[in-house]
Amino acid sequence: MRPPQIFIASLLCLSASAQAFDLSGLVSKEQLGNLGRSVQGQSQTGEASASNSNSSGLAGVSNTDQVSGLKQALTQGAETAVASLSRENGFLGNDKVRIPLPDSLKKADSLMRQFGMGKYADELTTSMNRAAEAAVPEAKALLVGAVKKMTVEDAKGILTGGNDAATQYFRKNTETALTGKFKPIVNKSMQKVKLAEKYDQFAGRGVQFGVVDQKDAKLDDYITRKAMDGLFLMMAEQEKAIRANPMQAAGSLAKKVFSAIKF
Questions:
Q1: How far apart are the first and last CA of the chain?
Q2: What is the pTM of this model?
Q3: pLDDT tens across 128-137, in order?
């Protein structure tokens, strides 16, 4: 049997070891906690950091040049998007913006194709896209007008914003007016290509199968909405391309400004 002193000393050593182990664990937890907070902070400030980086790049560019350069780039982007969509097959030949049949008609399309009547759906789809192609040129004046009205604050918000900041600006400032401009053109085009007649043919066949309810398909509203979606999508692509490669910009000021914010 060991003397009491040795026994007590052994207990003290074990206690010290246990405390050391616990302290090590606490340190590890604290380190992990700090790491977690650091990652969270990076996530929360990532967008702000990008914005600050853009702002820093613009520090050497005057407000006048910033606004003028941005206007050059946005006018170029708007004109390019309108031109690409308003030509024949601008919508129909572009998988990104082609207007499909409304959801309410897709079931009928699938069923009719099984019975060799796919031509009705194809003719209707072509007519809808032709209507959109006819309406898009009306957007040019409205988009250029929105560029001219742009303030210094608007410009700074766009330049330091995300890849589609300009597109969102256009949507906010022109969408209502575009709807008013597009819809009459769509209606006129629908008459010109006898879209209502083609829809009646399609719907009539679909009714035979019990899969089409004509009141569910307001084609003029649907085409107008899809035409605007396609326009803004193409504008967003133009904007993203210029931000990624400022040398694609047409004007010297636009090149200067977007080169300053590229990082």
A1: 76
A2: 0.72
A3: 999 999 999 9
